Amino acid sequence: MDLTVKRFDTTPLEYLSQEQMRDIHSAALEILEDCGTMIHHEKAVELLHKAGAYVKDDRQVFIPGGLIEWAITQAPSRVTIYDRNGTPFMFLEGRNVYYGTGSDCPNLLDTFTGERREFLSGDGADAVRLVDALPNIDFTMSMGLAPDFPDKLQYQQKYAIMIRNSTKPQVITAADKSCLSDIVDIAAAVTGGRVGLSRKPIFVLYNEPTSPLVHIKEAMEKLMFMAETTCPPTILRES
Length: 239
Description:
Blueprint: H1 18-34, E1 37-39, H2 42-51, E2 54-56, E3 60-62, H3 65-74, E4 79-82, E5 88-92, E6 107-109, E7 116-118, H4 121-133, H5 154-165, E8 170-172, H6 177-191, H7 194-199, E9 203-207, E10 214-215, H8 217-229, E11 233-235
Parallel strand pairs: 1-10, 8-9, 9-11
Antiparallel strand pairs: 1-3, 2-3, 4-5, 6-7
């Protein structure tokens, strides 16, 4: 397997100066300290309060800039994501770049008929196998909604498709903590248990807050669960 790290060796495209980026960072710290953020998770609020944040009305949390700066220094400078076989595959650090697919296409254009139709579970399996064969695609997501799966098992079934049909790392989605726990159990069964998965994670959780500045209960439960299992999450905001 070629483990060549994908990074840009040329001068990066820069839209903002260092001073402008510092201004944006300072403004973000000011917003979190003065405006605060709504966190719908009692344990998370308690942890932030103990760390020095000011809490109003049980949910609105004002986070001091110094606390945020300290937390940034505690984040690891490198996270390694492994493939299904336990081989280091993606090194999340510096300017390394990796490419993968998306998660929730409701429809597809059928390759054989030219028909626009629902993206079903069988299409997901075909797509994941294609991803596995493409050398320039580094990770896979579920790619389709697969309405032929039961609603309560949507994410678990789609994850099973990914891990069966590709050895590449995954970026996963989950409806809630219970669903995420099921997915972790599936991955753990392949990697030698939850301890093995914790040591050599094979996926990253795609998690989302609610814009602007709201962290709903489900998103926080998933984030806290990932911290407990020491598997990496990513937090993305979609407008």
